[in-house]
Amino acid sequence: MSDLSVEMIAITKTFSGVVANNSIDLTVRAGEIHALLGENGAGKSTLMKILAGAYQPDSGRILIKGREVNLHSPADALKQGIGMVYQHFMLVETMTVEENLLLGLHTVDLIPNRKKLRTEFESLSKQYGLDVPLDARVWQLSVGEKQRVEILRLLHRGADILILDEPTAVLTPQEAEQLGHALRQMMSLGKSVVLITHKLDEVMQFADRVTVLRSGENVVTVDTATTSPTQLARYMLGHEMARVQRAHEQTGDEIILRAQGLSALGDRGLRALSDLSFEIHKGEILGIAGVAGNGQRELAEVLAGLRPLQNGRVWIRDKDITRNSLDRTVSQYLGYVPEDRLHMGSVPGLAVSDNLILKSYRQKPFSRSSLLNFSAIKKFASRMVKHFNVVTSSVDTPIEKLSGGNIQKVILAREISIAPEAIIVSQPTRGLDVGAAEAVHRLLLEERKQGKAILLISEDLDELLLLSDRIMVLSGGVSMGTIPAAQADIDELGLMMTGVNRTSHQQMQSEGQMT
Amino acid sequence: MKLTLERRQGYGQWTLLLTILGAVLVALAFGALLLLIVGVNPIEAYRLMFVGAFGSEFATVDTLVKASPLLLTGLGVSLALRANIWNIGAEGQLVMGGFAAAGVALFWSEWLPEPLLLPAVILAGFVGGALWGLIPALLKIFGGVNEIVSTLMLNYVAVLWVEYLFFDAWRDPRGFGFPGTAEFPRAAWLPRLTGQLHIGIIFGLIIAALIWFLLNRTTIGYEIRVQGKSPLSARYAGINVMRNLMLVMFLSGGIAGLAGMGEVAGISHRMQNGLAVGYGFTALIVAFLGRLSPPGVIVAAVFVAGLSVGSEQLQLSMNLPASFALILQGAVLLCIAAGDLFLRYRVRLNVRPPSQQMVAE
User: Fold this and answer.
1) Which chain B residues have a beta carbon less than 8 Å from that of A346?
2) CATH number for the segment(s) B67-319
3) Across the strands, what pairs with B277?
4) Cross-chain residue pair B359–A14, CB shorter than 8 Å
């Protein structure tokens, strides 16, 4: 018997050829809070879903309290004391908290002893400081309360090892504080917690040890007491200070795209962008860096006219293209390559040629008095396919049959063809293989050379450093500052991404070096 | 050993055709099982059904008479589904089309010049159904009401409304107590091709061609396809989704209304009990069996009509209930829906348990 609560040994998992976890080792001790840190797509969630029984690994072994186990389902995992709280809660909104706690409980009789169970719930919730209103309906609860219900449910089912997926992403600071308290309480009772996160401050605040994943591999496991945010950022981003180099040619002086004082709400009705201002010159790529969910998507949507602005204005040259509602005219001034390329950027089920005219089908020569002109469309599509090197058997092939890289080329071809001066590009190479990513990069640089103003939103710092002329860092919907890419320092960027303003980062850095 | 499903990237025309044929065969096999249980030779029964539906000119005409309202309602429903709108209200739209056509035929003949009466009746049939179809669209746009619920519920309103009319308000006083309106003037009768087969089926074929043209050759059809496949892309492309929703429901309801017009002006020449016999619901089966494509819907309408006419033959000669047709229809729909699984996934047999699989695979 060891004090190791979980040992995952050489876990490998691939999804249709893409390696999500490459022979990862992970150990979690009893009574510790262990953070799993990494960028989006580093393989954190996959690894934890394997531990929670939701995925089966291709190879590798899992030991729980020293005993090898096979976890075929989440129910299996729970039997071994492993429970996971997902980012999207698994609660029935229209039922009460108590009913949700009862739901799927295998140990109860046909007619559950509600009184006895209720006492159990109440004492558990007191013991861990997890305050939940048992009689309220779930839809009435705050996000933090819902999270507590999920944790309580797992504890009641005997979970010793709790996995929390980005637990504070949706919490207010006060709720996060309360969660931290509950976690420490669990720890003192010998339970283990794994926190999936990409926030450095969260790691430093909560965790005893931290394992950093990058591109599906375990980079390092360290005690948080012996590391610093700077060090962790370096592990996470994987730059050994070597920077990809590109000749940063002179950009034009003319301002093409100008945004002033942009403020907007996110999907949950909370402020997602606050008073954001910037300008992009002719032949310039402005990179937007930031940890996922810090206003990047909202920024793109606001500019593209898909999300209403609360405040602010957008100009292309002298033309005011600000709108508070959907307006088709925007696409004539601004191309937009959205991050959701499969459901927004392209229309699955329609042919490559149909997808290429998504923004221009109302214009000549593609249609005349509401009638589509097929020969013009086909001719245009063939030209685009050839010019942008799209690999497809024909322009009539349904777009979903193309590879991700080729779908992205189709979208880029369309947006470049409609937008004379400015284009927004969001996560252009996410999920693409190296070759396809390179092709996309070449395309963007070519467009820059042609004098386009490009807004590049990406979570890939390599990409931002390679392509951008300047990089603006967003955190919590606020600009942390803009730095010329040629002078960009990866540590500095990493810190700014975690919410440290450019002016105050020097202080933080010296603090990091002391430890 | 374990069966696993693997997501496919699209599918070919042949896979699609095979899936539909497979679904129909499985449904027929299920029917055969039922026939065996009641002690009937299924091969003999299916032969009789086929002969009953297509074996003679008389039988074929009978099948086509049933096929024509199914074709129209099926086209209406499939057009809406192409825009990802679930119009379960074709029955009510059919009935309201019949109602409007009957109203014009009965009460406008006095002042409308005779040659204009039939065109007015046809137009009324379309408009009656179209306006009834527009209600759920408006409810959805302005109240966020789910169209599946509203179209379904409006069926009952429509059916009860016309029942009130032919049982009471519009009942023919010289009808010997028979529930129905007076006979329409001859000028309002839809011309017949042969037997009871009226030109409604030609309307169906023309409309099938028009829908195909609308969807594949016009900008609005393009928008409908985009919003049907991916609402998010439609928003991204700046498509006026709400306007298209209204247009599609107007057309969808109108086409179903034409079916009702055909029933009253083409067959019974009056509005009477038996207007709402479920064509509007069977339309969903027709639409899915025809894979929402106009040519497919034509074939599906004839097939489904054949099933029901053939089953009547079973009732006569083998003393089986005619509702056997309904069972087969239901089985076909379920199998088509289940067949979608094979379009979206490839089924694979995994021989070794996953934990023993090697990385290199």
Assistant:
1) 230, 233
2) 1.10.3470
3) none
4) yes
Q: Does A345 touch chain B (CB under 8 A)?
A: yes
- Per-residue pLDDT of A471-503, as tens digits, reads 999 988 999 999 998 888 777 887 788 777 765
Helix H or strand E segment including B253: helix B241-262
Q: Is B30 left (phi over 0), alpha (psi -120 to 50) or beta?
A: alpha
- The answer to whether domain A4-237 and domain A255-352+417-514 are alike in fold is yes
Can you tell me the distance from the alpha carbon of A453 to that of B59, in angstroms, rounded to the nearest whole number?
70
pLDDT digits (tens, 9 = 90+) for B183-209: 999 999 999 999 899 999 999 999 999
**In chain B, which residue's Cα lies nearest the Cα of A69?**
B355
Q: Do B217 and A306 touch (CB under 8 A)?
A: no
Q: Which of B229, B354, B359 sits opposite A350 (nearest CB)?
A: B229
Those of residues 127-156 in B touching chain A at CB distance below 8 A are none
Residues of chain B with CATH 1.10.3470: 67-319
Q: Is A400 on the interface with B (CB under 8 A)?
A: yes
Q: Which tens digit of pLDDT belongs to each residue from A271-294?
A: 899 999 999 999 999 999 987 778
CB A97 within 8 A of CB A149: yes
Whether ipTM > 0.90 holds is no
Q: Which residues are within 8 A (CB) of B191 and not within 5 positions of it... i.e. 6 or more apart?
A: B198, B199
Domain A255-352+417-514 is classified in which CATH homologous superfamily? P-loop containing nucleotide triphosphate hydrolases (3.40.50.300)
Q: How far is B111 from chain A (nearest CA, A)?
A: 39
How would DSSP label each residue in B295-312? Answer: HHHHHHHHHHHHHHHHHH
Looking at residue A503, its pLDDT comes to 58
Phi, psi of B338 (to 5 degrees): -65, -35
Q: What is the pLDDT of residues B84-113, one digit of tens each?
A: 999 999 999 999 999 999 999 999 988 899
Binary contact (B219, A371; C-beta < 8 A):
yes
> Smallest Cα–Cα separation from A486: which of A236, A251, A299?
A251
Half-sphere exposure of A272 (CA within 13 A, CB side): 22
Rounded to a whole number, what is the distance in Å from the CA of A283 to chain B's nearest CA? 26
Q: Which of B230, B238, B357 sits opposite A347 (nearest CB)?
A: B230
Three-state DSSP state, B170: coil
CATH number of A4-237: 3.40.50.300
